[in-house]
Write a structure and sequence with these properties.
The protein has about 220 residues and is α/β, with parallel strands linked by helices. Helix content is about 40%, strand content about 20%. It has two domains: about 1-115, Rossmann fold, CATH 3.40.50; about 125-215, Orthogonal Bundle (Arc Repressor Mutant, subunit A), CATH 1.10.10. The protein has helices spanning about 10-20, 35-40, 60-70, 85-95, 105-115, 150-165, 170-180, 190-200, and strands at about 1-5, 25-30, 45-50, 75-80, 95-100, 125-130, 130-135, 140-145, 145, 210, 215. The strands form three sheets. It has a five-stranded parallel beta sheet, sandwiched between helices. The mean pLDDT is about 90. This is Transcriptional regulatory protein CutR.
Length: about 220
């Protein structure tokens, strides 16, 4: 899942981004509304965690732009105000969910995951294919009943492949969904991660390389 965190309190923004990355999400961070508009014009995000009171361009205007562009991106709006009227206003602007500060990180993570599931074709909460069972919420992976421990990026790549339901996923698509914008697209990070993931999943191999196209399960 690709997430953009937009928050002018840099310590909070960086802390949220670090926590979401530990949950196997690809996260970009910006600290003002103008930078947010620039990023959503370049990258495809599943979810934008958007502070409402932003410098340069207000969070409301960022949200309106996402709606105006007809993007499938879901917006989780943050605010220091917990007034019902503010929540209603934010939802009427086009936000998909609303979370007042301060918040529990576990709740933010759960809301981001719930919104992420709404950006694509509805799938069951636990993904199963080729003897593999993947639970995104619990961060658990089993093959034929045996639990497999995966690093965050390995988990993210496997989740993207499982969600594709047998369709081929290109290396570029994996890079887009599992890594943030600071990753050098000319590295072999995708190939190396897939190789490590194959080894951990065991025999017989379930990740198939489609020459010139990408990977599928």
């Amino acid at each position: 899942m690709r997430v953009l965190v937009v928050e002018d309190e840099q310590l909070l923004a960086d802390a949220v981004a670090t926590g979401l990355r530990r949950e196997a999400m690809a996260v970009d961070v910006v600290y003002d509304g103008a930078a947010a508009l620039e990023r959503i014009g370049v990258n495809d995000y599943d979810v934008v965690v958007l502070d409402r009171d932003l410098p340069l361009v207000h969070g409301d205007d960022v949200c309106r732009k996402i709606v105006e562009l007809g993007m499938p991106t879901r917006v989780l709006m943050l605010t220091a105000s917990g007034d019902v009227s503010d929540r209603v206003e934010g939802l009427e602007i086009g936000a998909d969910d609303y979370l007042p500060k301060p918040f529990a990180f576990s709740e933010l993570t759960a809301r981001v995951r719930a919104l992420g599931r709404r950006t694509s074709v509805p799938l069951p909460p636990v993904l199963e294919r080729a003897g593999i069972k993947l639970d995104p919420n619990r961060r658990e992976v089993f093959r034929d009943g045996k639990e497999i421990q995966l690093a965050p990026k390995e988990f993210a790549v496997l989740e993207v492949l499982m969600r594709s339901e047998g369709a081929v996923v290109s290396a570029e698509q994996l890079l887009e969904k599992a890594w943030d914008e600071n990753t050098d697209p000319f590295t072999n990070v995708v190939r190396v991660t897939v190789m490590t993931l194959r080894r951990k999943l065991g025999e017989p191999p379930v990740i198939v390389t489609v020459p010139g196209s990408g990977y599928r399960i």
